Amino acid sequence: MRLAIAGGTGLTGSRIDAVARARGHETVVLARSTGVELLSGAGMRGVLEGVDAVIDATDVATAKPDVSVSFFAGVTKTLLAAERAAGVSHHLALTIVGADAAPDGYYAGKLVQERLVAAGSIPWTILRTTQFHEYAALLFHRGRAGAHVAPRGRVQPIAVDEVAAHLVDLAEQAPAGRARDLGGPQEESLADMIRRYARAIGFRGPIPLVSVPGTWGRALRTGALLPRPDARRGTQTFTDWLDALPDA
Ligand SMILES: NC(=O)c1ccc[n+]([C@@H]2O[C@H](COP(=O)([O-])OP(=O)(O)OC[C@H]3O[C@@H](n4cnc5c(N)ncnc54)[C@H](OP(=O)(O)O)[C@@H]3O)[C@@H](O)[C@H]2O)c1
Predict the structure, then answer these.
(1) 58: containing domain
(2) Which end of the chain, N or C, is less packed with Cβ atoms under 10 Å?
């Protein structure tokens, strides 16, 4: 197959690209660093020629709903229009378990992305997954020196390699609509994850427990972002992931 990976240079996209190439697929990576700007559509001419499926793993780092909505709506519209023009027969989007539980921040954009894909004319698959193990690292490094915090939260983190492999599985199959959600093997405390990650990389300072305000913070604390019992489960635990860190 010929697969296009939007955001194929990112954390998830680069793993999707590696899995797809290892399985013998041809890949096309769409990212600004490969000459494609997915908001304006610059650099898109001809890139989807002969492509069977497009996997969207783009992202924007924001907690602001208007920024998130304009990013995910813009990227999705650009991709769907180019897919129509090139005759692509499958669009896959990666979104987040519990996106509808806190639609007033970043998740607002993920919901708009899902709605545009489902309402579009390209046959589609939407996969919602839980937070990746790397989320602990991301949140730790967001705190500048001396200002690290550990938010209270219930999460069930998943290995990004398992997400990537499952997305390629889905791209190899017929469009599925809303695929079964994918979560990690077990529930973890987000605060513990951040503290354990920090210790694993040698940080010895304090990391106080905090409650994130607002709808998203409440969703995180109350378990609204956990997968339901019928979700598919990955196998790599957060402990396995920590043990595999180069600095651990
Ligand atoms: N992190 C999690 O825990 C988690 C959990 C569930 C689902 N997800 C979803 O997974 C997806 C991927 O997240 P990630 O953490 O892998 O993202 P990431 O590492 O931040 O990568 C984002 C990708 O998007 C590309 N990109 C950004 N703006 C672009 C633009 N205007 N035009 C073209 N390309 C653009 C980037 O490349 P350039 O900078 O070169 O343009 C990069 O390849 C997101 O949709 C997220 O919602 C994440």
Answers:
(1) 2-243
(2) C
Q: For the chain, what is the domain count?
A: 1
pLDDT tens figures, 128-149: 999 999 999 999 998 876 689 9
Residue 192 parent element (H or E):
helix 190-200
3-state helix, strand, coil in the chain (%, to 5): 40, 15, 40
Q: 215 — phi, psi (to 5°)?
A: -65, -40
Structural domain contains residue 7: yes
Q: Which of 96, 247, 236 is nearest to 161 (CA)?
A: 236
Inform me whether the pLDDT recorded for 189 exceeds 80.
yes
Query: Residue with structure tokens 């955001």?
Result: 7
Give the DSSP letter string of 49-70: TT--EEEE--------HHHHHH
Nearest CA to ligand 1 atom 12: 57
Q: Find the CATH number of the domain harbouring 126.
A: 3.40.50.720
Of residues 247 and 84, more confidence is placed in 84
Best probe residue, ligand 1, of 12, 129, 140 (max atoms within 8 Å of C-beta): 12
Residues 6+ apart with CB under 8 A from 43: 35, 36, 37
Q: What is the pLDDT of residues 193-238, one digit of tens each?
A: 999 999 999 999 999 999 999 999 999 999 999 999 999 999 999 9
Question: Ligand 1 — pocket residues by CB below 6 A?
Answer: 7-13, 31-33, 36-39, 57-59, 94, 96, 110, 129, 131-132, 135
Angstrom distances, CA of residue 41 to CA of 31, 77, 82, 162: 11, 10, 9, 30
